[in-house]
Specification:
- This protein has 2 domains: 80 residues, Orthogonal Bundle (Arc Repressor Mutant, subunit A); 122 residues, Beta Polymerase, domain 2, CATH 3.30.460.10.
- Helices cover 50% and strands 16% of the residues.
- The chain is built from 10 helices and 6 strands, in the order αααββααβαβαβααβα.
- The strands form 2 sheets. Strands 5-4-3-6 form a 4-stranded mixed beta sheet, sandwiched between helices. A two-stranded antiparallel sheet has the order 1-2.
- β1 and β2 form a beta hairpin.
- The longest helix is centred in the last third of the chain and has 18 residues.
- 32% of the residues are buried.
Length: 211
């Protein structure tokens, strides 16, 4: 799955990203605005896509002077399918959160990070998951089976490889003490899935470290 534009799993042309933009707002947008938000293709290519979508009735075109503003036609018979495809990223987040929510051993924190969280990768990108696990015996089979199942599940859901970064609270504290830029990236880009927010986990570690 293209983590920047998941809709391309089914709509591989420029139509996919354009439909994602239209699905993401009710505000009328010009061709240039849609091209800028989509971040792919050329403005001429986006113009052709919008013209075709308007001909099919999937998009509504409103001419205002020299500009044409486009909005999604949510009354169109095809629009529920567009909404579903445009919402694949949200569906992935919901499925992962639901799956982790069933675990026998709950993580202190779980989130997506990296390109899948920032939505700036491609079809070859890994799906990176941060898991802060409670302190366990070094070889806890239940925990390991959960993480292995999550990796397999992500692969089945997306076709992408899942990289699960499992870290203990102690190791997380070491990253913070070393001012590891990864921590800033986790806080900035992370998509929360389960457990406490990462900022709350860090605050707790900070309190516990005080004399």
């Amino acid at each position: 799955m293209d983590v920047a534009h998941p809709i391309r799993a089914v709509v591989p042309t420029l139509d996919g990203p354009v439909l994602e933009v239209l699905a993401g707002t009710t505000r009328p947008l010009t061709t240039l605005e849609i091209h800028r938000v989509a971040g792919v293709g050329s403005s001429m290519g986006v113009r052709r896509v919008l013209h075709r979508l308007a001909e099919q009735g999937v998009a509504l075109a409103d001419r205002r002077g020299n500009a044409i503003y486009y909005t999604a036609n949510r009354a169109h018979l095809a629009w529920p399918a567009v909404e579903m495809l445009a919402g694949l990223r949200r569906e992935l987040h919901a499925r992962l959160a639901a799956a982790i929510g069933t675990w026998a051993i709950q993580p202190l924190h779980a989130s997506l990070f990296g390109s899948a969280a920032r939505a700036d990768g491609d079809v070859a990108s890994d799906i990176d998951v941060l898991l802060v696990r409670p302190d366990l015996a070094p070889a806890d089979e239940t925990w390991e089976k959960q993480v292995d199942a999550l990796r397999a599940m992500v692969g089945a859901f997306t076709g992408n490889r899942c990289q699960a970064l499992v870290i203990t609270p102690g190791r997380l504290a070491e990253h913070v003490a070393a001012r590891d830029p990864l921590v800033d990236a986790w806080l900035r880009d992370g998509v929360h899935l389960a457990g406490d927010e990462l900022s709350s986990v860090l605050d707790r570690l900070d309190r516990e470290a005080r004399p």
